[in-house]
Amino acid sequence: KNQVEQSPQSLIILEGKNCTLQCNYTVSPFSNLRWYKQDTGRGPVSLTIMTFSENTKSNGRYTATLDADTKQSSLHITASQLSDSASYICVVARNAGNNRKLIWGLGTSLAVNP
Amino acid sequence: DAGVIQSPRHEVTEMGQEVTLRCKPISGHNSLFWYRQTMMRGLELLIYFNNNVPIDDSGMPEDRFSAKMPNASFSTLKIQPSEPRDSAVYFCASSFAASGSNEKLFFGSGTQLSVL
After folding, report:
1. Residue B93 pLDDT more than 80?
2. Collapsing DSSP states into helix, strand and coil, what is residue A57?
3. Which residue in chain A has the smallest CA separation from B39?
4. Which residues in chain A are closer than 8 Å to B32, comparing Cβ atoms?
């Protein structure tokens, strides 16, 4: 069964600290893996998209890694800010032709406290 | 560009009433998606259109749900009759689908639907 599992479900950190969010997937065939940030009351916003051949990609203070062998990905946030408080969703695209099969995780809810 | 625009932002209705959600995709995008988000199930794809044509509606839960895209700049999602279990946030997203599979999805701010 195609699934994306994220951990932890929720996380609280202090401003300025680093954190790492995890994503494990059992999706086949694999096309790409994405991380989205969803602020409360808003739609998800794309942070990174990684293909099979990419094992790391950065977007500012966000760095995503991908291990296609173990089917794991992580999102590392450096020097967290209050604005990083959001839900972070891992999404895996199946190689189903036209990228129409996205398997969504349930997200990790991150709270950054002052 | 203003991004994907959805209306209304909030909708409260009574069971049995018809609900129509609206979406204006980003100009130039040729793919449009309707999603539903709940705490228990996360984001679920309901239907997507490519060049205004419905390609996959296998995610539409029941015949009570219907979606149209009469032109490249407008789409609707209709629920008739609505039921309390339809309460969720409904998102519209658009993208430009080229030959590859890595196109980025752009989401609207969603419609929070409450069916009493």
Report:
1. yes
2. strand
3. A106
4. none
The nearest alpha carbon in chain B to A52 belongs to B102
Q: Of A13, A8, A6, A5, whose CA–CA distance to A78 is shortest? A: A13
What is the pLDDT at residue A101? 78
A32 and B48 in contact by Cβ < 8 A?
Answer: no
- What's the rounded Cα separation, in Å, for the pair B48 and B55? 6
Distance CA A50, CA B79 (A): 36
Contact A38, A92 (CB under 8 A): no
> Within B1-116, where are the H helices?
none
Task: Express each pLDDT in A16-26 by its tens digit.
Answer: 999 999 999 99
Residues of B in contact with A32 (CB under 8 A): 101-102
